Amino acid sequence: MQAEKQRLQTLKKGAFIIRKFDLYCFDKAGVPQNTVYKYHREINNTSDLKTAVEVDHVAAAYKNNRRKIEGFIRSTCIMFDVDNTDTDKPGEWITTDILRADFPGILFYTVTS
């Protein structure tokens, strides 16, 4: 009953309920030398996602919250970084429409920088 009440309140706020996954966040955005992501965020709706991606984030848990290959613990989703910096030709860029065509039937979310 409580979960349903929370779901309805979330929908009233204009957020869409989505498949749950986890992100791990820093407290700032745009800090390329950062490797520590100590704030766990459970993403249950689009509002959670929008809030989490306002700062630097990763899609995996790491030992001591420090991002490095040997410290990997788990991930509940797959994250792709699409920069489109290989070409200045817009026709060669990877777009949401191309992702949708390449992954038919797969639920995904896009976040732009």
Key phrases:
113 residues, three-stranded antiparallel β-sheet, 20% strand, globular
Can you put this structure into words, describing what you see?
The protein is α+β, with helices and mostly antiparallel strands and 113 residues long. The chain has a domain at 14-77. Helices cover 22% and strands 20% of the residues. It has helices at 2-12, 46-52, 96-102, and strands at residues 17-25, 39-45, 57-58, 61-62, 72-74.
Short description:
With about 110 residues, this protein is an alpha+beta fold. About 20% of the residues lie in helices and about 20% in strands.
Counted beta strands: 5
| Helical content class | 10-25%
Q: What structural class do the secondary elements suggest?
A: alpha+beta
Sequence stretches where pLDDT stays below 50 over 5 or more residues: none
Total helices: the number is: 3
Q: How would you state the average pLDDT, rounded?
A: 88
Show the helix and strand layout.
Layout: H1 2-12, E1 17-25, E2 39-45, H2 46-52, E3 57-58, E4 61-62, E5 72-74, H3 96-102
Antiparallel strand pairs: 1-2, 1-3, 4-5
